Amino acid sequence: MNFKSFLLVVCFTTLGFSQQKEITLWPDGVPGSIQSDTYEESATYDELEVVRGVSKVSQPTLTPFLADASIANGSAVIICPGGGYTHLAINKEGYKVAKWLNTLGISAFVLKYRMPTDETMTDKTVGPLQDAQEAMRMVRKNAKRYNIDASKIGILGFSAGGHLASTLSTHFNDKVYEHDASISARPDFSVLVYPVISMKEGVTHEGSKRSLLGNNPSEELLKKYSNALQVTSNTPPTFLVHASDDTAVPVENSLEYYDSLKKHKVSAELHMYENGGHGFGLGVSGTNANWPNDLKQWFLAHDLVKKDEVYIFSYFVGNGEDGLHFAYSEDGYSWESLRNGASYLTPSVGKDKLMRDPCIIKGGDGKYHMVWTVSWTDKGIGYATSNDLVNWSTQQFIPVMGKMAGTRNTWAPEITYDDARGVYMIYWASTIEGKYPETKSKKENGYNHRMYYTTTKDFKTFTDTKVLYEPGFNVIDSSIYKWDDKFIMFLKDETVEPEQKNIKMAFSDNLEGPYSQASNPISGDYWAEGPTAIRIDGKWIVYFDKYKNHAYGAVASSDLKNWEDISDQVSFPVGLRHGTVFKAPRSLLPGLK
């Protein structure tokens, strides 16, 4: 191993301990380089002595900014700062952008590419492209080391850096140096911000053109590096940003590239802003300041970043003795237990001190409110609140059926928040001896439930308990959601004679009812209980416990009329039982893990 190779290994080895350390791009020597004693790299600094830019680059480097492991999503971006191919605005259009990408879970690599010059290059027109190709190959080759997906590595460039990014996107197969042919230099996507695209007079940025191609370039060179003319169907999907009042790099550059992408049926998105001029970086003022968020949405659409929220499922195991458990999912289909299935909160209230059927919602106060079943035969429920789902308030026992003589049980409580009134409705199933004898069965201990409720604004004072739903049959496990201007109740028909044991729906214009007659079953030919629902990508998904099968199932619908059984598409941790699905900020996930 030669000395330069040794230095590269040292750099890679220390990455785990000190990211943002420059990595030499060509440890074995820059291809086509000319030694010059007078061409020396220099830097400029702001008033705080922070580097602003660099010029006369002849030794290219990559500076990695690795996303925190707790939010990293496997995507990566190589950043090419602009500067007219004479210098690099390496802080504004490099380091700052890398740090912003890190907040999205994207790892970034700032490329300090060479300035094309005859002083240090035998062919200055290919120098920057050599650097961009090698940067892409280096990152892709070391994808596992960086904990990134080799199929999700993109290129992002500003101004002349946008020209380099579009050059890589259209010339990734050009053989401009000897390399490992098994590693592709093609970006998986590209982001071009006020990019130089064309070398055509009147459209190009003359300074960039002159620096890269010289004073009298041939027509062949002009065409070759007018990258809109080089787009093919294999050019990567592209996101473009430009301001209409850009006088340095006319907006026609982005328009030409976008039109060419469309012509070749390449996925593309163009954001044209009324003003902003040239060089606004991550955005200055006005509408151009929105482009990073627009890019984030594009990343989401292309599965390059994770959503800001994850899906959480609160549940119990066994009989509920050990308390609260959580699972999470990125897509609502594949669920993974958190903390290897350990309990987050041990029950301490009620006759039996159980924590069954834990229902959690986020309230109008921003806190998470939880209610649960504490006992088989108690007249109340458990309640606690949390800011982060990990640290919970002192548990309270709320005797919601305390004044209802003959109450046998208080099961499966849930909460729905009515934001229009700032009111929480707590509701549950109870059997009261002697009530509704026409639907009482001799089976299953004679339980004959109806839904009851109370409301509160502060979980300190509560309205008198009332009947919420009396559908003319034994009903349990209701879960209510607001949709448009209506409320939807998913419920279990608990009738055993003749057998039902399935999930149905009812509707109301008001949270407290009255609710409509129950629908036909939406679950299949199996016993189901404990429905909990959420909307994902325009579909309602209702999860429920197929408790005789010791498995969880689900049905999905786009219109609440036609339901598809998707039980074979969902997977849950073994032993998971009746709980609630809800969204939570991704920022809470590290604490939950």
Automatic annotation (TrEMBL):
Q: Which residues form the Arabinosidase BT-3657-like N-terminal domain?
A: 307-434
Q: Which Pfam families match?
A: BD-FAE, BT_3657-like_N
For this protein, the record's SUPFAM superfamilies field holds: alpha/beta-Hydrolases, Arabinanase/levansucrase/invertase
The domain of life for this entry's organism is: Bacteria
* UniProt keyword annotations, A-Z: Hydrolase
Indicate the segments forming the BD-FAE-like domain, all copies.
75-260
Which InterPro entries does its entry note? AB_hydrolase_fold (IPR029058), BD-FAE-like_dom (IPR049492), BT_3657-like_N (IPR055133), GDXG_lipolytic_enzyme (IPR050300), Glyco_hydro_beta-prop_sf (IPR023296)
Q: What PANTHER family does its record include?
A: AB HYDROLASE SUPERFAMILY PROTEIN C4A8.06C, PEPTIDASE S9 PROLYL OLIGOPEPTIDASE CATALYTIC DOMAIN-CONTAINING PROTEIN
Please report the name of this protein according to its UniProt entry. Prolyl oligopeptidase family serine peptidase
Name the lineage.
Bacteria, Pseudomonadati, Bacteroidota, Flavobacteriia, Flavobacteriales
